[in-house]
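Example record used in the benchmark description.
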Amino acid sequence: MSTFSELIDSEIPVIVDFYADWCGPCKMMPPILKEVKGTFGDDVKVVKIDVDKNRAVSMKYSIRSIPTLMIFRKGETVWRHTGVASAAQIGSALEEIGVTS
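Model output (structure tokens):
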């Protein structure tokens, strides 16, 4: 099992979806993230982090509201959004850091 630091320390951008099973808006994100993954394919990774099971990671990144989406590249945060994000918003963020669909 990889550590969170190992997961985000990647040349390929990693979209991290901080969520909880009890969170209604969080349930809207999987189909959106699937659409983003379908558009960008292997040029992006998607990781889901349950805030209830990963409190240390959630605290480290000051996750106070969910869903929170973050994009990491080489271990650095390059984008952050709290609340439900559209596939277009996530796609624009990826394009801004040079990922093409």
